[in-house]
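Entry type: protein chain
Record version: 2
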Amino acid sequence: MGTQRELQTRRRRRLRYQLRQKGNGRPRLSVFRSSKNIYAQVIDDVAGKTLAAASSLDAAVKGQLKTGADIDAARTVGKLIAERAKAAGLEQVVFDRGSYIYHGRVKALAEAAREGGLAF
């Protein structure tokens, strides 16, 4: 069957393939979570550039958070990435959850980004 890492890589590739097919060239809001922090980037795959980025390690939010690994941190990062994406002139993105299930911190970040004005 494969190791945990191989299975995770397969899930990530499968999801990215589907996003490319259905995304119609829209930028991708990619999420990465570690055990201690959460990160989000808006990526233009056509140009290969990061258009906006936010994480629980940013100086703008680090002092407000108790820890970078909880749902409150994810909500804060979601609002911040929405603000930065809108400042870059983006309103429509495709949500890339990577190999993570849409639950907990990933879901909280996505909902906060939607509340901040991003459409996906």
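Comment: Residues 4-23 form the longest helix (20 residues).
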